Amino acid sequence: MTPQEMETRIVRYGDLRPCKTAFIDAHTPGSDQKENFTIIGGGVSESPDQHVHISIPHGFNIGAAGQPPKCRNSLHSHRTAEVFFVLKGRWRFFWGRWGDAGEVMLEEGDIFNIPTGIFRGFENIGDDYGMIMAILGGDDAGGGVIWAPQVIEDAADHGLVLSEEGKLYDTKKGEALPEGVKLMPLLSEEELKTYPEPTTAEVVPGYVARYWDMVALADRTPAKVIGPDAMLRDRPGFEVALLTRGSATEEMHQHDRPSVLMPVTGHWRVTWEGGSATLAPGDTMSVPEGLMHTAVPSMTGAAALYHIIGTDDPAGSTWHG
Predict the structure, then answer these.
(1) In this structure, which CATH number among 2.60.120.10, 2.30.30.100, 1.10.150.240, 3.40.50.10490 belongs to the domain 3-208?
(2) Domain segments of the chain as ranges
(3) What is the pLDDT of residues 209-231, one digit of tens each?
(4) Alpha-carbon Rg of the chain, whole angstroms?
């Protein structure tokens, strides 16, 4: 594969194209400044304005959320796995029907394998624009987003309504549901009772991995972060590992399915049969299946990189409570 061909599989941080109208809370005060990015796969955006950088199926989706300080993403759930790692800033994740069942603060590099089937939200609690990178299970990401009822009600007060097909309509722009199309129904009280309300103590130990703990484990071999025998033992349809300078190797290798490289710190030189490229934090690279390659730090200083690859496991429930 030539360098020019591989560049089509690299999304540079500076080239990310945001969508500010991706979800139903795009007009709701406190959530109206967030930006959504769909990097690999179709994602779960409810807006036709969402740009998809790489549409090649990987068995999972890669996306990102960028938010200024005090901006939050409203309470929602997914039918498949949702994993976040912090690229920039400091973030608070919260969960439960009303967002008060539990919470955890994440720093740069930390990763959170959010249990499926639980309402969750997050906000930038840092002082600057923050960015979190996301991995969603399945090629279709579970068919969209399930919103807490109050989110849909609040959105309607600010002009956005959602059809039962998951498409947004902005009544402030004169848009209306087409004839015969119904509004997205609110979850009933009986349905809401099926959504768990785990505490912080129940969630954090098995679903959160801290950056420096992972770095320590990756001193000689890549740290297995998410997987059946990893720090966070789970089978969400993909596996995640962290590489550092100590565990990176020049030895060429290949995978039987596409894999993704996402630097957290430092610059990384990826070499393959046909060329090489340098990745910086925030860049995302899709490595084709069967391609011999290797990734090593290209400069001095701290260097860490997340590696994601799909598995044959279902992309479904990750809550073990």
Answers:
(1) 2.60.120.10
(2) 3-208, 211-310
(3) 999 999 999 999 999 999 999 99
(4) 19
Q: Which two tokens stand for residue 192?
A: 């809401």
Taking CA 119 as the corner, what is the angle to CA 92 and CA 139, rounded to the nearest 5 degrees? 100
Token pair, residue 164, equals: 């039962």
Name the pLDDT band for 46 (thresholds 50, 70, 90).
confident
Q: What is the DSSP letter of 301?
A: S
Topology annotation, domain 211-310: Jelly Rolls (2.60.120)
Percentage with pLDDT > 70 across the chain:
98
**Length of the chain measured in residues:** 321
How much is the average pLDDT of 273-302? 96
The answer to whether the 3-208 and 211-310 domains have the same CATH topology is: yes
DSSP string, 169-230: EEGGGT--PPTTPPBPPPPPHHHHTTS----HHHHHHHHEE-HHHHHHHTTTS-EEEEETTS
The mean pLDDT value for 281-304 works out to: 96
Mode of pairing for the β-strands spanning 223-227 and 232-233: parallel
The C-alpha atoms of residue 13 and residue 294 are separated, in whole angstroms, by 21
- Which secondary-structure segment (H or E) carries 89? none
